[in-house]
Structure formats: structure tokens, C-alpha cells
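Posted in: Structural Biology > Protein-Ligand Complexes

Title: Requesting predicted complex, uridine-diphosphate-N-acetylglucosamine in pocket

I'd be grateful if someone could produce the C-alpha cells for the following input. Sequence and ligand are given below.
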Amino acid sequence: MDQDQFTIKGGRPLIGEVEISGAKNAALGILAASIMSDEDVFVRNLPDVSDVRMLLSAIKGTGATAEQLNEHEVRMNGSSIRNYVVDDYYIRKMRAGYYMLGALLGKYHYAEVAMPGGCTIGSRPIDQHLKGFEALGARTKIENSMVFVEAKELNGAHVFFDSVSVGATINVMMAATFANGRTVLENVAKEPHVVDVANFLNSMGARIKGAGTDKIRIEGVTSLHGSDYTVIPDQIEAGTFMALAAATKGDILVRNVIPKHLECISSKLEEIGCRIRAYDDAVRVTAGESLHPTRIKTLPYPGFPTDMQPQISVVLSLANGTSVVTETIFENRFKYVDELKRMGATITVEGNVAIIKGGSLKGAKTLAPDLRAGAALVIAALAADGESVVGDVHYILRGYEKFKEKLQKLGAAIESGISREAVETVVKNG
Ligand code: UD1
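-- Reply #1 --
Done. Output follows.
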């Protein structure tokens, strides 16, 4: 809590190089999947963010080994698991705790996991996860905010998902890894982190094909062996720094990325008037003289990611004209708009559409409503004239490693400060 607000002096272009960390959403799936092996599994390039720390702590609660070798590497081992109930204060706050359902159901045919929380950006049901588990032969129940899954045996099945869900795809893929025979999953998510979790499971001996396409085929296996695996770079962290270059009229070389994963973001930034140069494992974004308006619709990968919607909306609020942003994945993802309006943005939200009239932003005091919107407000503050304060930055630290330090290296005037609310909480709690 002692670092719960950023004080930012905006209005200067951010210039330089930034090193992107491992992908949070891939890491969360991979760490849950790692306990499906009874041998040592080394996971490298983990981002040092609080969501990862929270999941590691929940995994330890099952009895599994989760030994932190350094801030980016762990040794996992699932042979000592004795407890199939996953429930603690932190797991209730995050979304990815649900991956323990697929991992434990697959391996032990039983799991009880607290109902997932995560950013309040929409209703975020888990019906598609449960539909997949049931198709494999599991019984499922939600009671007292706990999700129960249980099976006598798991048998391969054909699952056609009703909606494209990253979480459901990964979760059912994990459980099906240990099902008897063949499972076919259709209408699956194709995000880079889905592919990374599949590659990781295969590195332990799973037999998964087709990840990254609409159809995943899984031949069940009876055990998984050890592995040594490096998590892919974070597409959304990279995209956030790309948006930052555009918004601050800067020039940033975003390093340690897979440019292919960033094409959906790069092409929009080009439309907006930025110059993008892709290298083998880096992308350079040079802001144009002026920013042009555009239309953006969030879609499952390879479409424009919903997790980049707030950041790109900040860029568009600085453009020369009116843009339209349509959010199709989550129904409640424009909560940050009121905060942006306090900074002088002209945005009208009607349902899932935001009409953004570009202009300039001025410093103000805002609160991060969730992880990605929080990052967007920091971008806004760095692009704005004058001083801003962004509060509740613990949301941002769930998913951005050393955010302040990386920004400072690019020339940002950003400092952490103790918010009054944080001080009050510390005093209250002794
Ligand atoms: C994951 C990411 C999150 C990202 C999102 C979409 C993690 C930990 N989180 O979240 O950062 O914003 O993908 O890229 O990886 N849905 C259902 N039923 C279900 C599951 C989902 O109707 O059982 C709906 C959701 O309400 C939403 C859409 O499907 O409208 C996509 O959700 P999903 O892909 O599952 O997102 P998450 O896995 O929660």
C-alpha cells in the first residue's frame, strides 16, 4: 500500500528503449499447468507482478513445490500435492485462479476453487469452462462462491464452445490432457498465450495439436514429465508502451517482443499516423507529427485486443478528429472514461461504443479502476499538460513489472507516493 499512487508530470515525449517482460496471462496458465507433472518443471521469464505471486502462493497451498529461484524463475513440482481446495484471500481477487480447476481436475479428478474475481470489466461467467469439463465427464457445481468439479474418469469428447474464451480454452485443454482418448475443442481462442500454454504442456509430454487455430485436438496421456520452459513476451505490456510512444509524441524501441503478436496493434498505430518498424525481436514506434482519428473494434485474436482498448482510447483522445471505439468482449470496459474526462477528454459512451473527440489533456487527480485502464490513465497523465496523480496503482502492478522504473528510463517524470487512503488503512490496521 505504501506505493499506491503515482505522481506524474506530463507533456514530455518519451524516448528510448524498453525491455518487455514475460506474458502475465501465459505465465498464469503455465504455472497452473506445471503442477500436473510430478517431476521438476522450471519456468523462466516469469513477469515479477503481483498476479503471478498470488497464484504461486495459492499453488503452494495445495502442497505443491513452487520454489522461487530468482525474481523471474521458479522450480515447480506437483508430486507433493495433498490438498485439492484452492481458496485464499488473493485467489478470490484474481481471475486466473480458475486454471487450478482444469489442472487439478485433469490430474486428480477433483478440485474446489474459489469463484474467480479479477478486474470488474464485465460479468465474466465461467459457463464455458464448466461446459467443457462436463463434456469430459465431470460433474460441476457452484455453491457458496466455490466451484466444485469432480469426475470418476475423464473421457475425450467433442466440445464446441458457444463463445470464444481464452480461459475456457486453456482450462479444458489442461483437463483433456489427462482424459482417455481424443478430445476436439472447436471455436477456441487463438491468443498467443493459448498457444504458449499448449506448447508448454507439449514440452511436458502432452499431445496437443492445432493451438492457434479454431480447432485444438488433444490425445490424452497418463502422465507428464519435467520441463524447462521460457514464457513468451507480453503482448499487452508491449502494446502499452507502443501506445505510450504515440500519445507522448515519443520514439520508443520496444525490445524482447514477438512482432507477429503485435500486428493488430501496429496496424492501428500506423493508421493513427505513427511510423512502425519491426525487427526480429523488437518494434520501434515513432509518433507522427499529428495523430489521426480512426475506428477500432475489439475482437478475439488476431483482432484488436480488449486489453489494449483503454490505452488506444487515450491515444485517440489526443487525435485530430473524432474516433469510434467499439468494445465487443466485455460489457463494462469504459469505466475509465469518467476519469479521462476529468483530464479534459471529450468522450461519449453509448452502450459498448465510445465516441472520442480528440483534443488535448490536462493534468488531474484520477483513480485506476482496473489493471489496463490504470495503465491507460498513466499514459494519459504522461501525455497531459501539467501534473497528475493516479491513485490505486496496485491494480497496475498486478500486471506490469517495474512499470514506474521502465517509464523513468524513457524519461518520464513519475514518482510513487503514499496516498491518504493508504495511510488511513495502515493506521486503521495498526
Ligand atoms: C482473459 C485474460 C484477460 C483478457 C481476456 C480476453 C487472463 C487471466 N485474462 O480473460 O486479460 O481480457 O482473456 O482476451 O488470461 N465468457 C463466457 N463464458 C465463459 C467464459 C467467458 O461467456 O465461460 C465470455 C466473457 O464474458 C467475455 C468473453 O467470453 O465476454 C471473453 O472472455 P475470456 O476470453 O474467457 O476472458 P478471460 O479468460 O476471463
